[in-house]
Write a structure and sequence with these properties.
This protein has 11 helices and 10 strands. It is of the alpha/beta class. The structure holds D-glutamic acid (DGL).
Length: 255
């Protein structure tokens, strides 16, 4: 079984990519919605939550864990890899692919405050964007909107216009969705912004990395979703976020 974790429902955008690529594999997901957002928390707070969730996924039989959260990856991936014997796959804002396709030499990065302030992010920018202009923007309202299941409408459009204003004005033609929650707003972002602006989402690349580890197949693959928040809310959100996904929803047994 492949374990997947996130601060809430955002990591479901990665789960659906993994399921599309590896439909014969069982997936167990844990969304820490009771503690969402991670993006405004300290690294030590994020680490202690992620250790607890990883211990639980391991106890359920996870052979690898996908940290489907950029903020948790930045805060904890190195420590997780030292602490556990199984592979941990993390998220990374798509700075490299954005740098490869920008023509205006200006890139916008939409991500959480926790991701943008990390040393790992600074190194990514330093390595891949010499000669390019990189404009960053935390988008906390995007996370609230997705956790509420609001993927379009005036509140979403207002938030998109506010958060992208400076980068669009500066001529950015490539915007990175550097948080797994933001992927659920991709269509609305694309409809709201000028047509020439391209969006980079790293969910499919992460699914390919998972596949590269050759996880074991299951004769009867199941998808189990757990939440530290109200399970009724997860059941309400699932058809909005992943309309074609068949999965069972459960409360997280620890807190
Ligand atoms: N989904 C998370 C990420 O990719 C963060 C959302 C949050 O909890 O702030 O960074």
């Amino acid at each position: 079984m492949i374990g997947i974790l996130d601060s809430g429902v955002g990591g479901l955008s990665v789960l659906r990519e993994i399921h599309t690529l590896l439909p014969g594999h069982s997936l167990t997901y844990i969304g820490d919605s009771a503690w969402c957002p991670y993006g405004t928390k300290s690294y030590s707070e994020i680490q202690s939550r992620v250790f607890m969730l990883s211990d639980w996924l391991l106890a359920q039989g996870a052979e690898m864990i996908v940290v489907a959260c950029n903020s948790a990856t930045i805060a904890a991936i190195r420590t997780l890899r030292n602490r556990y014997d199984i592979p941990f796959i993390g998220m990374e804002p798509g700075v490299k692919p954005a740098a490869e396709i920008t023509r205006s030499k200006t890139i916008g990065v939409l991500a959480t405050g926790a991701s943008l302030s990390g040393e790992k992010f600074r190194q990514l920018v330093e390595t891949h964007t010499p000669g390019l202009k990189v404009i960053t923007q935390p988008c906390p309202r995007f996370v609230q909107l997705v956790e509420a299941g609001t993927l379009s409408g005036p509140d979403v459009t207002d938030a998109i216009l506010e958060y992208t204003h400076d980068m669009v004005q500066a001529g950015a033609d490539t915007l990175i969705l550097g948080c797994t929650h933001y992927s659920f707003l991709k269509n609305t972002i694309a409809e709201t912004l000028p047509d020439h602006i391209r969006l980079i989402d790293t969910g499919p690349a992460v699914a390919r990395r998972v596949s590269g580890h050759h996880p074991s197949k299951d004769a009867d693959p199941q998808i189990h979703l757990h939440t530290t928040g109200p399970v009724s809310e997860l059941k309400r959100l699932l058809p909005l976020l992943c309309p074609t996904l068949t999965a069972s929803c459960h409360p997280f047994p620890l807190s």
